[in-house]
Design goal:
The N and C termini lie close together (12 Å). The model has no long low-confidence stretch (mean pLDDT 81). The chain is an all-alpha fold.
Length: 103
């Protein structure tokens, strides 16, 4: 099934634009490291514990929610500066991470 056809059937009336999360009445939000900050307290330095915990929880939740047989569509917002020319070529955001090519 084509992506656009699937989206129209599964999510009638959905427009893929920022902020996709707030457009739909049914959504789930995970706060992956609520008690931690991405920065160390009082200094302008990254907090590695925050990123480690966020990564581990994201992987855990993903593996609990999806199986190897699931088909997953990833929708990515590409933000650019207003003065930046919008590119019409593929961004290849996920190319490095996709194991099964051809999609």
């Amino acid at each position: 099934m084509e992506l656009n056809q699937y989206i129209n059937e599964a999510f009638p009336g959905l427009v893929i634009k920022p902020s996709l999360y707030w457009q739909w009445k049914s959504s789930i939000h995970f706060n992956l490291a609520m008690e931690l900050s991405p920065f160390k307290d009082g200094i302008d330095k990254l907090n590695p514990q925050y990123f480690k915990e966020t990564y581990e929880k994201a992987i855990l939740y993903f593996n609990e929610l999806f199986s190897d047989d699931d088909e997953i569509f990833l929708v990515t917002n590409y933000y650019h500066h207003k003065k930046q020319r919008i590119s019409r070529h593929k961004l290849k955001v996920y190319a490095h991470y996709i194991k099964k090519q051809g999609y």
